[in-house]
Amino acid sequence: MRDEYATNILYNTVVLPSRSGETPLQQYNCLLALAHLQRYSDAVMYFQNEKVYKLLSRAAVSVDSKMINFDDINDYIASMVHNTFKINDLKNYNRFYFDLVSDLTCINECKFIEVFGSPYFLKGKPSLGPEATWENVFDQTFSQTFIDSSPDEEKKLDADGMNKKGNYNSTIAMHCLMKSGDIDLSLQKSDTTVKLLEKRVNTAFSPLKWNPDCVNYEYIHEKTKKVADTKSMMIMANRVYIHQILKELLEVSESKFKARAYLHWYYKYGLEEEDFLEAFETVKVIMDNYEFMMG
Asked: Which residues, including other chains, have CB under 8 Å from residue 147's CB and lie 6 or more apart?
């Protein structure tokens, strides 16, 4: 694909595995796949299985719903991907999806993007209705940014469920898109609401010191009657947070590799030790690049 379409933007959507319990090969598989994507892809939009499951489980408890299953996780991820492509269908918006992706991945060495948004579908129903305020939309969207199952991450959460500032929360670039039929009156011209939005963004997405203008706000007037009454928000962000994910992946993979665990399953189908060594090096370079961005 890279050879055939050298001038086109090639991007991939991936779902990172849970920390444990899926297959003993999952760290190897993830390592080899991410290394390949780093070499040939222009952008990688990623989600975390465990993170989405925990987010939806908390949301399901709040609405007294049933337990979360794979269909719910797929629905959430699909809705986020759908929202990104939907940008191209907005007749009153002069930017396109690939323009935004290019802005977010302006540094080729750092190309990992996260997507958060509200409302999303849970058990066949939208998570927020037309009566929701912008504060409700902000709460639900920002609550997605740091849901994580690691104890260390939980300790960083303050009373409001927002993540305290830290180097690994730093943001290289992000787009924050808000849509509604009355976007100008309800948000864009409301100094109080705009300041609240900016405060929440700065708390959850700490702009890098050398790039304080990395946040781009987009206010879109929705003309379609079906959704004009609904307030919605989508965030696309390139954060240093991926460094922590890769660090854990690398530690587990290297531990298994040094013990020569399960390698015969790969060698049986033509992979060699050099393939693993190259993958380790590629992922380490990604981590170094993101760490360098923190300054």
From this structure: 51, 54, 55, 58
Instruction: Report d(CA 49, CA 47) in Å as an integer.
Output: 7
Distance, CA of 152 to CA of 168 (rounded, Å): 13
Pairing between strand 112-118 and 43-48? parallel
* Closest among 219, 210, 152 to 184, alpha carbons compared: 219
Q: Is the pLDDT of residue 168 over 70?
A: no
pLDDT of residue 247: 93
Q: Is 121 left (phi over 0), alpha (psi -120 to 50) or beta?
A: beta
CB 15 within 8 A of CB 77: yes
pTM to 2 decimal places: 0.87
Q: What is the pLDDT of residue 164?
A: 46
Answer for the pair 232, 180: CB distance below 8 angstroms, yes or no: yes
Q: What is the mean pLDDT of the chain?
A: 85
CA distance 211 to 33: 30
Query: Bigger pLDDT: 61 or 289?
Result: 289
Q: CB neighbours (10 Å) of residue 123?
A: 16
